[in-house]
UniProtKB/TrEMBL annotation:
InterPro entries tied to this protein: PC_trans (IPR000374)
The protein's Enzyme Commission number: 2.7.7.41
A molecular function GO annotation: phosphatidate cytidylyltransferase activity
Keyword Transmembrane set for record: yes
Record organism: Dysgonomonas hofstadii
Protein's cellular compartments: Cell membrane
Protein name, as recorded: Phosphatidate cytidylyltransferase
């Protein structure tokens, strides 16, 4: 018996959220596992779109391995508790450096009609997807002098994005009249954006109550940065899909589209939040 689409959508969404939360909340090894898989699948979808819809051949599996090497190297560096020492990053990035060398040398032997396009799309995938997930490890190990895994900042990003998406949809459907970015995403409205942002920032007060890692204003700023850059991340992926003429990045999650569709907001929010926390730390050290 075929299940109704709404049931499939709910079940798939529940499994997806359960796996993601389990990976974040259990320990650093489940974090490493779940985000290694997410990084690989997002890269697989991205390079698949490039080959199928942009009609540009790229070394897809080599690039996926490269993304995993970057994420793994960043995890080893961050979990070592030496984030203040940039020289500690070098040994962990040696495997990724080999990937980059192989990527360029590989083009000499492929005889592609436009090797520069292949290289450009390969590097774009690394910068757009692999690098943000690598930077996520810095949020998982935020204390420069310790090796303790802390899930709270990672969890907060996803909660703020989920809350924002839900209430942006509800307020947009109810009150939306003024288009936010019609050229890229005709359905998004300013009313939806404001509604989602307000509720998401309000939800940061819950985090401030239970987690004293940041002050109340700092938590509210965290949520605001997440919402702003998460919205830009969503729009940027919409730009990619509109350019390529596709609706979804894939169909890995029944009723929800692709994996990349589920992490488009997170991809730009991660580096923005990391910079925000670094700025807070820099300012706080001089108070």
């Amino acid at each position: 018996m075929k299940l109704p689409n709404i049931v499939v959508r709910i079940l798939a969404g529940a499994v997806f959220v359960g796996l993601l939360l389990g990976g974040i909340l259990i320990n650093e090894y489940t974090f490493l596992l779940i985000f290694s898989v997410i990084t690989a699948l997002c890269l697989y979808e991205f390079y698949g779109l490039i080959e199928k819809d942009a009609k540009v051949e790229v070394p897809k599996y080599l690039n996926i391995v490269g993304g995993l090497l970057l994420f793994g190297g960043a995890f080893m560096y961050s979990s070592a508790g030496n984030c203040l020492y940039i020289e500690g990053l070098s040994p962990n990035l040696i495997p990724y450096a080999f990937y980059l060398l192989i990527l360029f040398i590989n083009e000499l032997y492929q005889k592609r009609t436009n090797p520069l396009q292949s290289l450009a799309y390969s590097i774009l995938g690394q910068v757009y997807i692999a690098l943000p997930f690598a930077l996520l490890t810095g949020l998982a190990f935020p204390d420069s002098w310790e090796t303790n895994y802390k899930y709270i900042f990672v969890l907060a990003i996803f909660v703020f994005i989920w809350v924002n998406d839900s209430f942006a949809y509800l307020t947009g459907m109810t009150f939306g009249k003024h288009r936010l970015f019609e050229r890229i995403s005709p359905k998004k409205s300013w009313e939806g954006f404001i509604g989602g942002a307000v509720v998401s920032i309000a939800s940061s007060l819950i985090f401030a109550h239970f987690y004293s890692d940041l002050s109340i204003p700092a938590w509210m700023g965290f949520a605001a940065v997440t919402v702003a850059f998460g919205t830009w991340g969503d729009l940027f992926e919409s730009l990619i899909k509109r350019t390529l003429g596709v609706k979804d990045s894939g169909n890995m999650i029944p009723g929800h589209g692709g994996i990349l569709d589920r992490f488009d907001s997170t991809i730009l929010a991660i580096p923005a939040v990391l910079v925000y926390l670094l700025l807070l730390n820099f300012i706080g050290s001089f108070q």
